[in-house]
Write a structure and sequence with these properties.
With about 220 residues, this protein is mainly alpha-helical. The protein is about 55% helix and about 5% strand. The chain has one domain (about 10-220): TorD-like (Orthogonal Bundle). Helix 1 runs antiparallel to helix 6 (about 140-155). Strands 1-4 form a two-stranded antiparallel ribbon. A two-stranded antiparallel sheet has the order 2-3.
């Protein structure tokens, strides 16, 4: 059985739907978004431990077992002497600048407020809002949270109409906020010569998002 696990969002509506569903290709997609969301969240001990002890690539590969498309990501080579402090410093070096965090979708536009409000409306339409930790709504980890939830809701519904609605929402969200931004972010961060596992995780995320978008477009018929 599979259940979602939101870290940057929480359910604000009275959702009495299923909380667990049988594992399948759609829950596998949800699970991969969950792992990426956890990785790109602000650094904590759990994230560091997963990265330094080779748990991260195993988590992603386990999550991706039932994906309906190929997703061969290899594995990162992480220096075992990398301390938590150095790991946190690298996270900051790669993803922070004078304008704020590069992991915010709004970092790619001059109309930041409008973009965040658009994302907020998408969340609210599906009954979601910020959790008590108040992580930015346009943070990459929060965007992954939302896609994780949409995939889970798709897997949980028995209605063909609702299934199609969740698929269209995934396609539109990926197209509007991620398929253009993430490749640009990877190119930007690659110029800084990132250490592992950051380079591996970013490139894996790019590959996954583009493959997932192509898959959703195909099943919706373009």
């Amino acid at each position: 059985m599979f259940t979602f696990s939101l870290s940057g969002l929480e359910i604000k509506s009275n959702d009495n739907g299923p909380t667990e569903v049988e594992e399948n290709e759609t829950t596998s997609r949800s699970a991969v978004y969950m792992v990426f969301g956890k990785f790109f969240s602000p650094v904590n001990n759990e994230q560091y431990d997963a990265a330094i002890n080779d748990h991260l690539d195993k988590e992603i590969k386990d999550a991706a077992t039932l994906l309906p498309y190929s997703f061969d990501i290899g594995r990162p080579t992480v220096d075992s002497s990398l301390t938590l402090e150095k790991y946190m410093d690298e996270y900051s070096r790669l993803f922070s600048d004078s304008g704020g965090s590069k992991l915010l979708a709004s970092s790619q536009t001059d109309d930041k407020e409008n973009l965040v409000n658009q994302i907020k409306r998408d969340y609210e339409y599906f009954g979601l809002g910020a959790n008590a930790d108040a992580r930015p709504l346009d943070h990459l980890a929060t965007l992954c949270d939302f896609l994780q939830y949409l995939c889970f809701k798709e897997a949980a519904t028995s209605s063909a109409r609702l299934k199609s609605s969740f698929e269209r929402a995934q396609r539109d969200f990926l197209e509007h906020y991620l398929t253009g931004w993430i490749p640009s972010l990877v190119d930007e961060v690659d110029k800084l010569t990132p250490t592992e596992p950051f380079s591996w995780a970013l490139n894996s995320l790019k590959y996954f998002i583009l493959a997932d978008y192509e898959y959703i477009v195909q099943i919706l018929g373009g």
